[in-house]
């Protein structure tokens, strides 16, 4: 990662998480920045997948909790 391609940022971590990050970086011979960037990319990808799932279900009929319990009771589950 070239220096011109990055933005410097301050992030406050719990001491235990910082220690885990340092140890993982040393063990994997990667920089802490590389590990944090990878984790952030993965979290954002998961958010994108979740939003796509919500969009795909937008036209589904909503079922209230009470109606769902009634359905479970009617089919003998409860």
Write up what this structure looks like.
The protein is mainly α. It has one domain. The protein contains 3 helices and no strands. The mean pLDDT is 93.
Name some characteristics of this structure:
elongated, 3 helices, about 65% helix, about 80 residues, mainly alpha
Chain-wise SSE layout:
Blueprint: H1 15-28, H2 32-56, H3 65-74
Strand proportion, as a percent range, falls in under 5%
Oligomerization status of the protein chains = single chain
The chain-level structural class is mainly alpha
Given the structure, what is the number of helices?
A: 3
Q: Mean pLDDT, nearest integer? A: 93
Overall morphology: elongated
Residue runs with pLDDT of under 50 for 5 or more positions = none
What string, H for helix and E for strand, traces the elements in order?
HHH
Q: Assign a percent range to the helix content.
A: 55-70%
The total strand number stands at 0
Distance between the amino and carboxyl termini = 57 Å
Strand count, sense and barrel status of the largest sheet are: none
List the domain count as a whole number.
1
Q: Please give the radius of gyration in angstroms.
A: 22 Å
Quick synopsis:
This protein has 78 residues and is an all-alpha fold. It is 63% helix and 0% strand. It is elongated, with a radius of gyration of 22 Å.
């Amino acid at each position: 990662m070239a220096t011109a391609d990055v933005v410097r940022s301050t992030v406050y971590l719990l001491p235990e998480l910082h220690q885990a990050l340092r140890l993982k970086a040393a063990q994997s011979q990667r920089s802490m920045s590389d590990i944090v960037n990878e984790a952030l990319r993965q979290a954002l990808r998961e958010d994108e997948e979740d939003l796509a799932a919500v969009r795909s279900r937008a036209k589904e009929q909503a079922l209230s909790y009470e109606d769902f319990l009634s359905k479970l009771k009617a089919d003998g589950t409860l």
